[in-house]
Amino acid sequence: MDQKTREDLLKLFQGKLNEAMTFYLETCTRCGVCIEACHVYASMGQVRYIAAYRQEIVRRIYKKYFKARGKVWPSVGESKELNEMALEELYEAAYSCTGCRRCMVYCPFGIDTQMIMSIAKLLLVGAHSEPEILTLLADTSIEKGKSLDIFKENFLTGIKKLEKDVVKKWKMEAGETAIPMDVQGADLLFVALAGAHSIIPTAAIFNAAGENWTLSFFEAVNFGAFVGDPARTQLILDRIVNEAKRLKVKEVCICECGTAFRVMKQLAGKQPFKVSSVTEVHARYIKEGRIQLDRSLLNGVVTYHDPCQIARNGDVIDAPRYILKHLTNDFRDMSPDPTYNWCCGGGGGLVALGEETLDFRMKSSKVKADQIKRTEATTVVTACENCHTQLCNLNDHYQMGVDVKFLSSMVADALVQN
Ligand code: SF4
Ligand code: SF4
Hints:
This protein has 20 helices and 7 strands. The protein is α/β, with parallel strands linked by helices. The chain folds into 3 domains: 3-130, Fumarate Reductase Iron-sulfur Protein, Chain B, domain 2 (Orthogonal Bundle), CATH 1.10.1060; 134-287, 3-Layer(aba) Sandwich (Rossmann fold), CATH 3.40.50; 302-413, 3-Layer(aba) Sandwich (Rossmann fold), CATH 3.40.50. The protein is globular and about 75 Å long.
């Protein structure tokens, strides 16, 4: 690695050194409490997958370049040179961590491995050593934000074709629009994923609840966050924030995508609208009597997988359980409870990397498969696209014999027509 590249990367590193990050980098006592907390270590038993070990790679670079002792006396300061080999170690650490923050709730100091890994990911982006596909997908989203007029017409045509499937789930009066778009002054902007499965069920539920809503032109997923690029993350986020402001909505409702929800909730800053997950909105409709659900459709034990970015990191824990109690008499929570729930193993961009990560995702998530099996559930419900894909893969790999379902689609299928 040449000197100029190293200096550029260290500038990126320095930009991440706020008060919280400095605390995380300087505080680990190597107490070992986090050893068993990571699903990757718990499933695979390899030291490199211990949370504190991942952190240590970043921490040693920090010691070498940002601490006096590491600069002057590297061997005593346990410092590490930032070079090509270090980048390989950073890649291994960052792209085997799903950012689930389970280790953080165990650590007595609350050290956030996901935040420390954000340095690793940023250095990889700076060195052009990140998974290229994630950057390409992030750039495609950003381009779409810049040239809405070019794709608007095709998008509207595609959405029109979905309307008949929405009406099949909830009948509309003549003249009503099943999927409203670009509605100035709507109360709620729904931000879905690209794909009919993310739009149709929730559109039917909004219509059943009599919501004054409109569908966003932009997809919720934020590939900038997966690849750990703050500039791209913000640009992708801004498209939705600007659309919400243009339409003057009161609420932005994020579909079943954990990262999209966390990014919008935690990074959008103070805005004239509130941010909700679609699960919170559906629970609210039930509480307010705006929708009724048929509880007789499901047979067998039902359990719920809390997406880490929505539950542990987004604090949406009661809403899905409230909904599920209106869908089944046989709900059984997993153990340990939602705060300590095992990650499914698909986050942090791993599912987005597809087949390339499949073998690792299966091996690293054995504890999740075991946790589900212990419930004896025949249906596993979740509220995140990544988790759903990963749970389907786990179901096949570990022959769990369960149905994996999206919560929103179960609500839509159970709507009681008046
Ligand atoms: S954030 Fe999750 S995946 Fe990453 S080290 Fe901690 S427990 Fe493991
Ligand atoms: S629990 Fe916290 S302080 Fe202890 S080793 Fe892990 S990261 Fe370090």
